[in-house]
Amino acid sequence: MTLSIQPLDPVSRPFFGGEVSGIDITRPLTADEAMSIEKGMDQYGVLVFHGQKFTDEAQLAFSRNFGPLEEASGDLNWGKARRIESAYVNDISNLDNDNKVLAADDRKRLFSLGNRLWHSDSSFKAVPAKYSLLSARSIPTAGGNTEFADMRAAYDTLDDDLKAEIQDLVCEHSQLYSRASIGFSDFTDEDRVRFEPVLQKLVRTHPSTGRKSLFLASHAGAIIGWPVPEARAMLRDLIEHATQRKFVYAHEWKQWDLVVWDNQATMHRARPFDPKEVRDMHRTTVGCLQSTMEQAQAA
Fold it and tell me: What is the CATH number of domain 4-298?
């Protein structure tokens, strides 16, 4: 087999989203294969691999080709018993620890509804995520797509005056902001400490390609030095701009798909599905080596 990466939509969006074929990523990769995938990520921002029957161990091994892994510390069960054994595998499912579908009013389910908002993974951590790798173990019969927005193209199409205005802005990111926007406030004192706001640059430069992009998320709730209403209006306008359909790829999941996206260049959101059906997705996350603030200071 020969590794090949082709655009998912060569007519409307040839620059965003690639489909990978000719490789079994459940086995160890060569250095050349890992480099080719990383180059594909730099080009397309999102890569889709079909038919990859991962175990958690194999997914972890594949993910480590691209950098150090984050612990799955962004959910409400951090430090408690988990359904998934490894602390480096995020449980992106609607299942409890006994593999039963969560009740409609379950606290974990209500918190996870925030994933339907546009966001970038781990932007609420001081050092945010590089790649997210999501494996579809079990999918509902309909719905449950994931949408991705190209934040590079979104930045490129801003007018020069707006680019100048936002170039040096710094935002506060926290899951407290994103969950509050959907009415979720059931946080413990420990949660509130863990999700204290962190600072992120609004415009970031990709460390590999040098391309600028918007670093937005529903987790962003303030701009340093701005009145909160004005900041949130600006952030809303930018998200509306960045999520125009011309910038968005919607992935319709098949079982055993693996989708990898670059959080340094994209936003994403989950779409609704029948909550009585199982949707079991396992995510590994490669962390960045620096915060966006450190990157900006080093530039």
Answer: 3.60.130.10
Residues facing residue 135 across a β-bridge: 258, 282
Sheet holding 198-201, edge to edge: 198-201, 170-173, 220-223
In this prediction, residues 69-78 reach a mean pLDDT of 86
Encode 61-93: b = buried (16+ Cβ within 10 Å), e = exposed: bbbebbeebbebebebeeeeebebebebbbbbb
CA pair distance 96, 108, nearest whole angstrom: 9
Cβ proximity of 282 and 137 under 8 Å: yes
Q: How confident is the model at residue 77 (pLDDT cuts 50, 70, 90)?
A: confident
List pLDDT tens digits, range 89-117. Answer: 999 999 999 999 999 999 999 999 999 99
Res. 80: pLDDT tops 90: no
Residues in the chain: 299
pLDDT above 90: residue 299: no
Structure tokens that stand for 271 in this block: 């779409």
And the tokens for 137? Answer: 């173990």
Mean pLDDT value across residues 141-151: 98
Secondary structure, 3-state, the chain: CCCEEEEEECCCEEEEEEEEECCCCCCCCCHHHHHHHHHHHHHHCEEEECCCCCCHHHHHHHHHHHCCECCCCCCCCCCCCCCCCCCCCEEEECECCCCCECCCCCHHHHHHHHHHCCECCCCCCCCCEEEEEEEEEECCCCECCEEEEEHHHHHHCCCHHHHHHHCCCEEEECHHHHHHCCCCCCCCHHHHHHCCCEEEECEEECCCCCCEEECCCCCEEEECCCCHHHHHHHHHHHHHHHCCHHHEEEECCCCCCEEEEECCCEEEEECCECCCCCCEEEEEEEECCCCHHHHHHHC
